[in-house]
Amino acid sequence: MKKIMMMAMMMVMTISAKAMSYSAAKHEALFLSDKMAYELNLTAAQFDDVYEINLDYLMSVNGYSDTYGKWWNRRNNDLKYVLTAYQYEKYMKLNYFYRPLNWEKGAFTFLVYNHYKNKNHFYKGNPKGYSSYKGGNNKKSDRFYADRNSHKQTGKRGNDKKANGYGSASRNSSAVASGAGRTSNHHALAQNNNSSRSGGIIRSGHR
């Protein structure tokens, strides 16, 4: 009887410590990446890459020792290539993104659900590779995402907004202000010309 109990416990531990299934990892990677896209203001291309990186990480961990080991470091290195300096700095400050997994009582827990309670709410649609990407980029070159440096914007969130088509209001305001300045100069020149013709008298509020 004791031997049977020990074998049963070993089976439970083995099942609990197994890597996540593809379907489970896919669902968790989507939820995590969606919230990262929302808070870090990711572009569509960044969202696609972040989903792949998160999926690779979740499919690579097998237990407590992997939670913040080799594959966690690889995830961070890959994200450095994909995120801007400002985005990466913010990412590290948000623990539910930076350390998304906990290992408790022989099972994984996801910290992002402590912050986002509604498990069915998503801010974006599915990333490009959601249906087709099966994982494995983190098993390839450790510079797999290095070329993303040439496509991303550097700097703070304001610069990212301009890169994504935001900030046009400020540019339009500048253009209006510039146009107003030119109009004001034309009025001033016209007033000076009129004053020279009328004996130099300028009355405020009158043409």
The low-confidence parts are 2-17, 157-178, 180-207
What kind of sheet is the major sheet? 2 strands, antiparallel
Strand residue content: under 5%
Helix content: 55-70%
Structural class: mainly alpha
Q: What Rg do the Cα atoms give?
A: 28 Å
Number of helices: 10
Give the gist of this structure.
59% of the residues lie in helices and 4% in strands. It is mainly alpha-helical.
What does this structure look like?
The chain is built from 10 helices and 2 strands. It has helices spanning 2-17, 22-40, 44-60, 64-67, 70-82, 85-93, 95-98, 112-115, 157-163, 168-197, and strands at 101-104, 107-110. Strands 1-2 form a two-stranded antiparallel sheet. Helix 2 packs antiparallel against helix 3 and helix 3 packs antiparallel against helix 5 (70-82). The chain is globular.
Summarize the topology.
Elements: H1 2-17, H2 22-40, H3 44-60, H4 64-67, H5 70-82, H6 85-93, H7 95-98, E1 101-104, E2 107-110, H8 112-115, H9 157-163, H10 168-197
Antiparallel strand pairs: 1-2
Q: How would you describe this structure in keywords?
A:
207 residues, disordered N terminus, globular, mainly alpha, two-stranded antiparallel ribbon, disordered C terminus
